[in-house]
Structure formats: C-alpha cells, structure tokens
Amino acid sequence: MNEDLHKKIQSLPKAHLSHKQRTSIKRNIEQNTLYDSCEQQQSWFAQRVIHVTGIAAILTLVFLSFMIGVNVNRSGDIIPFDKFKMENIENLQLVHDGEETVIKEQKVIIDLLTIISDHDLFFIELTEREHQKLLTKVMEDHAEKIHIILYQNKGQGNIQQYAFMISKNGEVVLETIHNGFSRKGYKAVGKHKNLYKRIVDF
Amino acid sequence: MCKNKIISEWFELYGDDIYNYVVYRVGSMDVDDIVQEVFMKALQKYETFRKESNPKTWLISIARNKAIDEMRKRGTKWRKNMMPFHQKCEIPDHQTPEKVLQMNEEHRELYQAIQSLKTNYREVILLRGIEGFSIKDTASILGWSESKVRSTYYRACKAIKNQLRGHMDE
Questions:
Q1: Where are the transmembrane segments (chain A) (predicted)?
Q2: Is the ipTM of this complex over 0.85?
Q3: CA end-to-end span of chain A, whole Å?
C-alpha cells in the first residue's frame, strides 16, 4: 500500500520556472560574477586600507614613544625611572622651589611620580609598586635632607590612607601628621610595614 | 571552466527541481527570488563544494537552508504560508502546485495531507517522494542516517494515509 502512495506522491504535479523567470535568473547569475569580482576588489582594497592604517598607527605610537623619551631628558620635567637620579630631585627642588613639578614615570609599573617642593618640606608622592626601591634609595642617599616623604597608597585613595615618614637629622621616625589618620589608615599601610621597618632601621 | 559557467549550467539542469522544492517548501510567494539566491549562494560558496557529491544534492541543501531562513523571516509557520487551493489568485503562465492541483481532487487532498504533517515527515516526503531523491541523498541533505530516512518516510506515509482516510470518512 505504501508503494501506491509513494507513486501518488511522485505523481504530484511539478512546478517549474517560466521562460521569463528562467532568463531573468540566469542573467542575474551571470552578472553576479561582475559584482562578485567587484566585491572581491573592494574587500581587497578594504584589507589594504586596514593594513596601511594599522601600520601607520603602530609607527605613530613608536614615534610618539620615542619623542616622549627624548623630551623627558631634554625638558627635565619628565624623567624615565631608570634615569631617575637623586640629583634630579635636588635640581628640581632648587629650580622649582615653592612650585609643583610633576615627574611622570615612563615605566608601566610606575604610572605617576610627583615631586612637590614646598620650602623646607620635601614631599615625594609615589605609586605603590616601586615605592620600596625608590624610597629606600632616597632615604639611604639623602636622609639628612629629607624632612617628609609622603607615601600615597594609591589603591585606597583618600588622605587618611597616607603614611608620612619623617626624617630629622638623619633619624627616621614613622609618624602621622594628619589628624584624621585613622585605624583604617594604619591598616591600609600595615601591609607595607616591612618597608617602614627598613626605613626605620636605617 | 569558470565557476559562473558551471553554476549557469547547473541552473539549466536543476533550476526547475530547486524551484519545485521551494514551491512545496515555502509556498508560492517570492519563489523565484529564493531560487536566484540559492544559485547566487552556490556561486559564492563554489570552492566549498566537494566535487565527489551530486551538485543537485548540494543545491537542494542550500535551498533547504534558504527556505528555513525565509520561513523564519516571514515569522509564520510553513502551513500558514501555503496558499490555499481554493483561493483565487493570479497565477503566472508557469505551473505551480496550486494551479495544477486545482484540476485534480485527489492531488489536492494528498497535497493538503502532506502540508498537515509535522516538519520531519514533510521534509522526507518532499525530498524522497516529490523530488525523488534516493535514500542516500535524502539522508545526506537532511543530515540523517539512511535508516532514519527509511523509518521516517514509512511513518510519514502512514500518517498521510490516516489523513486521507479521515477525509474519506468525513
């Protein structure tokens, strides 16, 4: 019985394209080759544009990085960390006494290094990752000249979370200046107690 | 031979089969557009065609995907898109199932019975029965095993017979 039904299904009328439809579709298929090659050309062109733009962007970045590096040394305002010398601090202190000078660190690990010179108080504001190295060196080399090192714990973000290390006549004392330096603030800097210990032991 | 020439030849050979498949699959609306899209797609993806298989099978697979997209686009079920036989409409000079089936009561009932089947059954009836593909080719188009094609076709025929019997009882 299925065989009969199969035959009936097979005998269902077949739809077919009219001559007009056939001609039209065939023409479109053949013309599509042109569009196709045009599209390919466009995509080739687009790819080239992207490549050139990408290369230009990279070259610009390299150039800018190079120029920044050059400017740093030339202007003296921005100094790469590896070329950071204590003389720079002293020079800046002399030149910019009473003013604010920003030294921007080029290395990724230190995104900002600010030196503020204010009369006899010498503030150094550091980001936290390289602070130990730099602070220790500062303390070793210039303890007698440094009155206050302001260490900012960048991750915490408010004044209560600043630690102040005071050096008087070569004697290093860990003190808080700000009245609002709270227990929370102590906690925030507590993780750096090894640093303080090293400074205090100095 | 360049690919557009090949596709053009395929259109000559299989254009009507694709057209017939699409008419049965999605109804009589915009069928020629869909057929054209099928061959355009074939032209675009010609490099992916594995030469050892039958071009008609490949083209029907593309047509099937296009039909599914079309149905999704229309947002309605297949059955709802099918133009009813009794509906008077302007039919062009080519044969559509609607026009032909109007002449034959038996075909009309059979056609309606097929339309009322569930999707799997309709797919297999359309490919194996109406388009006349072999079990192997039907399996390849639907991505089924050959035994699944056999058993589904058998069950689909049974369901059609039940439908037709129901009509006769009425």
A1: 49-70
A2: no
A3: 104
